[in-house]
TrEMBL record:
<dbReference type="InterPro" id="IPR010982">
    <property type="entry name" value="Lambda_DNA-bd_dom_sf"/>
</dbReference>
<dbReference type="InterPro" id="IPR001387">
    <property type="entry name" value="Cro/C1-type_HTH"/>
</dbReference>
<feature type="compositionally biased region" description="Polar residues">
    <location>
        <begin position="1"/>
        <end position="13"/>
    </location>
</feature>
<feature type="domain" description="HTH cro/C1-type">
    <location>
        <begin position="16"/>
        <end position="85"/>
    </location>
</feature>
<protein>
    <recommendedName>
        <fullName>HTH cro/C1-type domain-containing protein</fullName>
    </recommendedName>
</protein>
<dbReference type="GO" id="GO:0003677">
    <property type="term" value="F:DNA binding"/>
</dbReference>
<feature type="region of interest" description="Disordered">
    <location>
        <begin position="1"/>
        <end position="21"/>
    </location>
</feature>
Length: 90
């Protein structure tokens, strides 16, 4: 079993992003495209692609945690419920 939750799954926001993105067969670039695509519909803005790529890498590698604004955008881009990012309680 891997580290993380009792069932062996790591449930950090970054691990969720990476797992769902890979399950879809998407590159980080594809996820960035999807986030850019859904942002206007949500009335949201996204940073330049280069900045978003750096942010996505930091999130997936666990160096930073996406804030609520970006979790909403990520959820829409990945087509998952925002609650997917909820951390399990100890």
């Amino acid at each position: 079993m891997s580290e993380g939750t009792p069932n062996g799954r790591n449930h950090t926001p970054g691990s969720v992003i990476r797992r769902v993105r890979r399950q879809r067969g998407w590159s980080q670039q594809r996820l960035i495209f999807e986030m850019q695509r859904v942002a206007p519909r949500l009335g949201m803005t996204v940073p330049a692609p280069e900045s978003l790529k750096a942010m996505l890498s930091r999130w997936e590698n666990g160096h930073q945690v996406p804030d609520a604004y970006n979790r909403r955008l990520l959820a829409a881009g990945l087509r998952i419920p925002e609650s997917t990012f909820d951390m399990p309680s100890d």
